[in-house]
Amino acid sequence: xxxxxxxxxxxxxxxxxxxxxxxxxxxxxxxxxxxxxxxxxxxxxxxxxxxxxxxxxxxxxxxxxxxxxxxxxxxxxxxxxxxxxxxxxxxxxxxxxxxxxxxxxxxxxxxxxxxxxxxxxxxxxxxxxxxxxxxxxxxxxxxxxxxxxxxxxxxxxxxxxxxxxxxxxxxxxxxxxxxxxxxxxxxxxxxxxxxxxxxxxxxxxxxxxxxxxxxxxxxxxxxxxxxxxxxxxxxxxxxxxxxxxxxxxxxxxxxxxxxxxxxxxxxxxxxxxxxxxxxxxxxxxxxxxxxxxxxxxxxxxxxxxxxxxxxxxxxxxxxxxxxxxxxxxxxxxxxxxxxxxxxxxxxxxxxxxxxxxxxxxxxxxxxxxxxxxxxxxxxxxxxxxxxxxxxxxxxxxxxxxxxxxxxxxxxxxxxxxxxxxxxxxxxxxxxxxxxxxxxxxxxxxxxxxxxxxxxxxxxxxxxxxxxxxxxxxxxxxxxxxxxxxxxxxxxxxxxxxxxxxxxxxxxxxxxxxxxxxxxxxxxxxxxxxxxxxxxxxxxxxxxxxxxxxxxxxxxxxxxxxxxxxxxxxxxxxxxxxxxxxxxxxxxxxxxxxxxxxxxxxxxxxxxxx
Length: 609
Hints:
Elements: H1 2-34, H2 38-42, E1 48-53, E2 60-61, E3 67-80, H3 91-98, H4 102-114, E4 119-126, H5 128-137, E5 142-151, H6 158-161, E6 164-166, H7 169-174, E7 183-185, H8 188-192, H9 194-197, E8 202-208, E9 214-217, E10 233-235, H10 239-249, E11 254-260, E12 265-272, H11 285-294, H12 303-306, H13 316-326, E13 340-343, E14 346-349, H14 359-365, H15 368-379, H16 387-400, H17 422-429, H18 452-463, E15 467-469, E16 474-477, E17 490-492, H19 500-514, E18 528-534, E19 542-549, E20 556-562, H20 572-585, H21 591-598, H22 605-608
Parallel strand pairs: 2-10
Antiparallel strand pairs: 1-8, 2-3, 3-4, 3-5, 6-7, 8-9, 10-16, 11-12, 11-20, 13-14, 15-17, 18-19, 19-20
Helix pairs in contact: 10-20, 13-15, 14-19
């Protein structure tokens, strides 16, 4: 009896537990069905539309607070194919109102049909006026999304500022934060500072009826998020100087870069030919891009930071400084030049000037022979035990001036230039070579390749007597106390500052006493300059000029490079001189020279055939 009683109690207990659990479930179900409306609301999610809210892209100012890049309102025209409905819509009226061609509309609708519940872009860059006309028509399944597009008040700096384009399929794989239809900086400042300029997207959840018409905000905007605008940038560029630089370089191929030596701030960066940045906006962007791509002069290529040019005679400054530091040269050392340098059968030609000459006069007159002697003395220095070891030392000095490597600027596509190493010559000459074999390096020829940015940085190094700041394009960022700390650090060469004075004096004499740069003289401004004529095996020589001013406490350092421009004083020098005059005096007192250079058109066999 006792056993039966205990079993009965256990059975009753189990029944009570089961009944209790059932009662809980029934009560919870009744609560969800009759009282709690939350899940009923969520069940209506198939009637909700999540609309991305694109943030305004950050704007860009020049160093004086003038707009160089602005954002203005535009709209994307979207469609959810499922919401169009069986009744369709008036396609002729739709195309007339929106400006979308019938062919494009049919093509995009066919693509939208593949994913009928997803929103798809039909057309971009609708103006505010087009959007208002569209809203009056109430086309089922179609709606607009606000976003911004770029505009360029000055129409300058195409290569410098870069452009914005739609993300590609490849970019979507690499950057999961982006979605199809997003815009991204493709080059220049737009690309380098994309993370700051783009902002953060928001979302608006809307209720729509069965016809796709918007009924209102879902749950009073509880699940909406507000977009965060991109940050604005204050660039280092002087917009007026940039505009003048582009006008002077028009009709020419090359680059011009100006830097403030005391900060490394890029005052101007011109790559020529360039393009109107407005051409890569709007619905005709694709056509304009293809036209620029087919242009043989390659206007999309930023020569200022990517091109690899022989520096020519401007590189003699580096040779002189290395010679002084290595102790194989004194400023007073004299070398003869009888129309060039000759060693056995090898002859390096030079132009007529007085002989013998010292270092200062050699810089002023750009004597080839003088720097052939200096270069050979560096490589053949007995303390190194051989020319190859001497060459290694020479290469280390050259690299300390920023050549043969990226400077670390805020241009993502900055080029390295090129400085050959001993292995290069070992391969070429099967290990048998000497200082005469590589003599062309003494005057900036041979295998040397430099970007115009590196040459402008050389001008800064000489202006600062031995150091430079990494060239950069952004001065201030909204919401930040400072820019990247690396732009505030001094980078010293391997040459002692005391050795720069005779080089600076030679550059000053070349402009103000009598040398190859006298046309760059600006009374009262103590301009220092060095011409360069870079040999070109495929046509007329390249013209280059490197300068800074004033001599003491310089405010601007500049390099100009004109392909096929001839002598350094023919094309590059007058361009640099006009730019220096304008920046330092805010005016140009040589209108005839200004008109002549603006109208100068140079024929380029490599591009114009």
